[in-house]
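Renewal narrative, Specific Aim 1. Our central claim is that a sequence can be written position by position from structural information alone. The example that follows is taken directly from our test logs and has not been curated for this report. It begins with the structure tokens describing the chain, in the order in which they were read.
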């Protein structure tokens, strides 16, 4: 607790002062250029890895950077992630959507946990069911499953591609995407090297951002 409060003071005295004009300009409204969908993992800090300032990223983070598929209004979607996506596109009119996965993702690892463990955390279990198709795709490619490190790496990357697809189930995103009015960017962040790889949909592969 003490560390958090000390951080607040340090922010106000130093960082805020450094960007005081920016904060004053942002007083009344935000115009972020990018919706950033990332994992809640404490090691993946969107503003830090993209060198962004306040006002630039509209961020939604959840376990394993999952995008729930679109639901029709009568289906009562209560997902905070779906609401953030809708708001970012319809109200803020962002130009880019980033889906950022990362190495050593606990959420991606957890989709393989046995029921006896998952049943002790029912909300997490229910959430991870949204990534069930990721698991299916990975197991198709790696039926033996003896290389767990390979399975995790593949899961983290397949997950980004699947969530990219889920975004296109939102009719208002699909329309903009087809009209080249919005960019969707899949990113994979490697914690220990600081490298970010960007998904090239034409090649079906991730390439180092340069
Ligand atoms: Zn994660």
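The sequence written for that structure reads:
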């Amino acid at each position: 607790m003490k560390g958090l409060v000390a951080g607040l003071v340090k922010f106000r005295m130093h960082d805020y002062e450094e960007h005081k004009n920016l904060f004053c300009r942002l007083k009344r409204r935000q115009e972020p250029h990018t919706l950033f969908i990332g994992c809640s993992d404490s090691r993946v800090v969107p503003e830090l890895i993209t060198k962004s300032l306040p006002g630039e990223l509209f961020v939604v983070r959840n376990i394993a950077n999952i995008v729930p598929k679109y639901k029709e209004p009568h289906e009562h979607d209560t997902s905070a992630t779906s609401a953030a996506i809708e708001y970012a596109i319809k109200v803020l009119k962002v130009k880019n959507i980033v889906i950022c996965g990362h190495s050593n993702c606990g959420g991606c690892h957890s989709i393989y946990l046995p029921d006896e463990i998952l049943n002790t955390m029912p909300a997490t279990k229910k959430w991870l069911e949204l990534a069930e198709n990721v698991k299916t795709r990975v197991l198709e490619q790696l039926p033996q499953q003896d290389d767990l490190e390979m399975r995790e790496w593949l899961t983290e990357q397949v997950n980004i591609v699947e969530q990219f697809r889920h975004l296109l189930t939102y009719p208002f995103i699909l329309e903009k995407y087809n009209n080249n009015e919005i960019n969707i960017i899949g990113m994979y962040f490697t914690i220990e090297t600081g490298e970010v790889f960007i998904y090239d949909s034409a090649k079906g592969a991730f390439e180092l951002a340069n």
